[in-house]
Structure formats: structure tokens, C-alpha cells
Design a protein that fits this description.
Layout lengths: L3 E4 L15 E5 L4 H12 L3 E8 L40 H16 L3 E3 L15 H14 L1 H4 L5 E3 L7 H10 L24 H13 L9
Parallel strand pairs: 2-3, 2-4, 4-5
Antiparallel strand pairs: 1-3
Helix pairs in contact: 1-5, 5-6
Length: 221
Amino acid sequence: MTVHFLFCHEIFVVMAQSTSRPRAVVLVSGGMDSAVVLALAREQGFDCYALSVAYGQRHSSELEAAARVSQALTADIDVPEQGGAGIPVTYVPARNTIMLSIALGWAEVLGADEIYCGVNAVDYSGYPDCRPAFIEAFERLGNLATKAGVEGHALHVRAPLMRMSKADIVREGMRLNVDFAATVSCYNADATGRACAHCDACRLRADGFDAAGVSDPTRYV
């Protein structure tokens, strides 16, 4: 199996050249939530270093311009069109743990004290690694597991969208001039990034735009 770690993904302008500003590593998936998080981190004065990971996810069309995934890490299963009780079959074991661990290592190399991610506990579809308890636990781990943390350079894991509804995220993105048309959220997006309009991610995204009173720019099949 092959995993590609895409630093400074070219879809987003992510790395400033200034050395006087604090640095932050931002997990960027290509979806709407991480795009808003990246814009927030930039607004808050950070030089942002974006990290995208192509791990064989179904909704990988946003990464294909940067790398081809040679073998998927996820099983070939049907994606449910509506969420149900319990943890959904689209759950990827340890996904956020692995991605945050990579971000943690890169942050220490960069001398960055901040890691930003787009996890959300309101419209999170039941994923256990999108809960506040997980983010808090990983931050504690990061400060125990790194030289920087042990020497008193505290690491912070920021999840600014954690308690926001999808409509709130849309409104915040509009305030920050995020180009939502360039983002892909669908679990079943085709090779050109067009969404299926039926999966749980599409439903949450469409409901968010509708509730926010904003025209949905998503391209559908």
C-alpha cells in the first residue's frame, strides 16, 4: 500500500515566506471545513503550512492533481446514502490519529506550536475521532511525546469548527471569502470532483448552505 503526504498542497496558497510570524500546520483535505480552517488560521496571523494526505479515500478527486493513489486503504464497500445509528461504514480506522501524528512531527521540525484541523462534533456523522475528547487527548499526547513539549514549548491542537453547525461554517467561510466551489466533500465524487448529491456528506453540505441562505456552488453529477 502507498500513502502520499502532500505538503503545501498547491490547490491552496498556504506557505508564506515571512519568518517573523508564528507558524501553524493545517490539515487540508480539500473539503469545505478544512478550507475554512485554513482561512481562519491565516486570518489569525499564522504562516500556514498545509498538509494533505492521499490514503486511498474515495473522495480523493481533490488530491489527484498532486498525486495518484496506487492502492486504497479503505475497503470496497457501498457508501450509505443516509446516516444511521452508530459509527458509519465510511469510518477510516485511526485516520485523524495518523494525520495529526504526521502534522505533529512536521510542526516540531518547523518550530510550529499550532496544529489546525477541521473536525466537527455537531455535523460529524458519528466518527469517534471528531469528538472534543479526542482532540484534547491528542494535544496532551503531543506535549508528552515531543522534545518541544517536554522542554516547555506547548503544542496546541486547534479545532475552531468543533462546535459550529454546517450553516455556521458556511457563514464563516463567506466572511473569509472562501471559494467553496473549489472544495469537494462528497464520499462518491467522480474523477472531476462532481458530487453524487446522495451520500451523508452531500446531505450535510447541502443542508448547511440551505440553512445559511447561501446558494450552493457544489457541482453535482
